[in-house]
Structure formats: structure tokens, C-alpha cells
Amino acid sequence: MPDRPPTPVDRSLPTAEARHLMTLVRAIARREIVPSAAEEEEAGRFPRELFTLLSASGLLGLPYDSAYGGGDQPYEVYLQVLEELAAARLTVGLGVSVHTLAVHALAAHGTREQRAAHLPAMLGGGLLGAYCLSEPSAGSDAAALRTRAVREGDHWVITGTKAWTTHGGIADFYTVMARTGGAGPAGITAFLVPGDAEGLSAAPPERKMGLKGSPTAQIHFDGVRIPDARRIGDEGQGFAIALAALDSGRLGIAACAVGVAQAALDEAVAWARRRRQFGRPIADFQGLRFLLADMATRIEAGRALYLAAARLRDAGRAFAPQAAMAKLHCTDAAMRVTTDAVQVLGGYGYSADFPVERYLREAKALQIVEGTNQIQRMVIARHLLGPQTR
Ligand SMILES: Cc1cc2nc3c(=O)[nH]c(=O)nc-3n(C[C@H](O)[C@H](O)[C@H](O)COP(=O)(O)OP(=O)(O)OC[C@H]3O[C@@H](n4cnc5c(N)ncnc54)[C@H](O)[C@@H]3O)c2cc1C
Questions:
Q1: Is the pLDDT of residue 8 over 90?
Q2: What pLDDT was estimated at residue 2?
């Protein structure tokens, strides 16, 4: 059964421009995303042409500087757009979030020349990005990464394997963290690698539980040679650059989680109204009414949390612990809400003919990506208590 369009969420947007933007996003979601979402996810098809449309519509550069083709939108607005895209199809919301993450290093730490050379194509010229931090042996402990970049004159030669790269194999550019110095975070440098670089290849996509339309693959760097002009930031600054991008990226994941949860709630409410048992709509039973009320409350709390963190970011204040809290809460809420949505639909919820089982499988990924929820708790606890003594 094709997904139904999401029920419009009543949003408080700060400007008329943001309200127009939301109207555009909803029209794209309704016409271009929702009708094919279920079929394409089942077929494992990534909607590359849709991303070209999103880029042309300004939706791949929303929080970035308009001087380079971005949308100049505050995170408060960008994240609500992401939420709507994720509610329509998580592969799309997550794809926009990962692209935005991949752009962050260059936008925040690139030189003026680098930004002028690359950002316009990334923000509105149709390019799609990927972010390469994780490796087969370095996931949560990302500072243990082993991919090496060795300097040869005014070039770098990159060798190693990155794991779990969203858009791996289809991206036009890869933001890559590689080791240029000794062990630990201080030995890591960031690079911008073009997708067609010689020596770069992708393994077949991972066979995932959900998000089957979003390709996730290992990327092999076999002596990939890139000019020093594609080094982002100073040597040894790469880990800090990667983590700064993740602080913002986690807000994107939180917004995506709220979107999936909202889509699941919408389905559950519609079903509860329609389905009759014991001679009445099941929406009459208090057991289900309370379940739906709890689902709605978790979603609203999640939305409020990611928006509060976004507003701190927009005000130029520190927001990393709040971003970790938003990621933790919203993704746990999405897991709970999608599980409960399956319950509301009963046996039908367990069938692939209805979208809620897909939402449940998709929500699980969000508790893992961009730092597992255990890692988010470590970030929050470090903020409260300082670093662990051992
Ligand atoms: C769909 C998908 C898309 C992804 N996209 C990208 C991408 O685009 N780019 C990218 O770089 N990576 C990406 N990742 C990788 C993701 O960031 C990692 O999977 C994640 O960081 C966890 O690493 P790991 O899988 O190696 O698990 P591990 O680090 O091996 O963790 C295994 C378990 O141990 C727990 N754990 C580990 N250390 C601690 C600790 N100190 N305290 C408590 N618990 C701990 C973890 O929480 C987890 O439960 C993606 C992953 C998925 C599933």
C-alpha cells in the first residue's frame, strides 16, 4: 500500500520566507516523494533525480551562506524542513542531512578560495556529498581510524577503507578523515575527495534492515592522489572538524527521527479511526487512546528538544550537549513510537503492505548513526561531570 501524505504539523516558523519554504517542501513531499516511497524502498532504489530537484530548489544548502549559493536559513527552519522530508521518506530526509554534514567541514573550515571553488556546486549545483569517518575497526572509537594520507610534494596519497558510508558509491564528493600524523585525534586531517578520483572504489551496498533505498557502502582508497588544495583546515585538525560537523549533524538525525515518528503516528491515528472491533472503532478503547496520547507526547517533546538546541545554535551559543540530548531522546522516541504504531495496527502493522513496519525498521538505524545513543550519553555525562578519570 503506498504511503499516505503526512498530516501537516502546526509549526511556528520565524519568517514569511520560512513559511513559503515549508509550503514548497510540502508540495515536493506530496507530489514527488510520498507516491513512490514504499515501492522504491522495497526495490532498494535511491532517488538520485529527486536530489537533483532538491538541489535546484535550494534544499541541499539551506543552512549555509547565500554568498556561496546557500539558503541562509537558521537551523530552526532547516531542521523542520528535514523533519517534513523524513516524514515523507527517511532515505530523503537522511540523505539531505548527510549531504549537509558532508558540506560542513568545507563551509566552516575551508579557505575563502576553497569555499568559492567548491561550495556553489555543493549547495545548489546538483552535487551530492558523503561523510567518511567510520572504518571497519573504528566506529564509536573514531579517533582510532587507520586510513592514511601521506604527503608527496604538493599532493596527498590516501590509502585505507572507510565503512558504512551513506551515499557510498553514488556521491560526487567525499569528506574524508585520514591519519597524517601519529596515533589519536591529533594525527587526523580532513580532505575533500572527488567521487571520480582514481583509486576510489565502492564495495557493494550493505544489505540493511531498513533504509534500503539509501546506499551505505565501504569505500576503498587505493592510493588516491589529491592536491594539497583539497586539505580542509590544518594538519591535525581533522578530528575536531569531524566532531564539529557531527554536533550539527546530530540535530539533523533528531529531526529525521521526529519525522519518522510523526509519520507512524499519523498512520496509527488513521487506522484507529477506521478499524472496528467489538462493534466499535478501536479508537474508542482507552487502552489505545492512551497509547496514541503517549506517542504524540513523545513526538512533541522531541520536536521541542531539537528546536531548543537549534535555537541555541542559531544564537551562536554552545549547543553540543543539547544536540546529543536531542539525538538521544528523538531517536529513542522514534523507536518506541514506531513500535507502538505497529501495535495499533495489530497484524496489519506487521505486514509489509502497510508502511509502519518499514518505519520501525528505519527508526532503528537512527539510534546507531552519527554516534550511537550510548555515545550520546557519554557526551552528555562528560558535560555534567567532566572526563572520566580512567
Ligand atoms: C545506516 C547507517 C549509515 C551510516 N552512515 C555513516 C556515514 O555516512 N559516515 C560514517 O562515517 N559512518 C556512518 N555510519 C556508521 C555509524 O556512525 C557507526 O555504525 C556508529 O558510529 C557505531 O560504530 P560501530 O557500528 O562500529 O559500532 P561499535 O563502535 O563497535 O559499537 C558497538 C556497540 O558498543 C557500544 N559502545 C561502543 N563504545 C562504547 C562505550 N565507550 N561505552 C558504551 N557503549 C559503547 C555502542 O554503543 C554499540 O552499542 C552509518 C551506520 C549506519 C548503520
A1: no
A2: 44
Our answer on whether the CB atom of 211 is closer than 6 Å to any ligand 1 atom is yes
What's the gap in Å between 253 CA and the centre of ligand 1?
14
Give yes or no for residue 379 CB within 6 A of ligand 1.
no
Give the C-alpha separation, 180 to 155, whole Å: 12
Query: For residues 102 and 173, is the Cβ–Cβ distance under 8 A?
Result: yes
300 catalytic residue (yes or no): no
Please determine, for residue 145, whether its predicted confidence score (pLDDT) is greater than 50: yes
CA separation for the pair 202, 109 (Å, rounded): 27
CA gap 96, 284 in Å, rounded: 39
Among 140, 141, 170, name the best residue to mutate to test ligand 1's pocket (greatest count of ligand atoms within 8 A of Cβ). 140
DSSP state of 31: I
Residues 313-338 have a mean pLDDT of: 98
Question: Which helix (H) or strand (E) covers residue 123, if one does?
Answer: helix 112-124
Alpha carbon distance 131, 232 (integer Å): 13
Whole-angstrom Cα distance, residue 317 to residue 27? 33
What are the pLDDT digits (tens) for 156-179?
999 999 999 999 999 999 999 999
Smallest CA-to-CA distance from 239 within 280, 179, 315 is with: 179
Q: What is the pLDDT of residues 240-293, one digit of tens each?
A: 999 999 999 999 999 999 999 999 999 999 999 999 999 999 999 999 999 999
**Three cell numbers at 188?**
587526523
| Mean pLDDT score across all residues of the chain | 97
**By C-alpha distance, which of 15, 25, 31, 37 is closest to 84?**
25
Best residue among 41, 94, 97, 134 to mutate for probing ligand 1, ranked by most atoms within 8 Å of CB: 134
Place of cell 507516491: 35
Distance CA 294, CA 302 (A): 12
Residues 6+ apart with CB under 8 A from 5: 29, 30, 34, 88
- pLDDT tens by residue, 176-192: 999 999 999 999 999 99
Cell representation of residue 61: 544548502
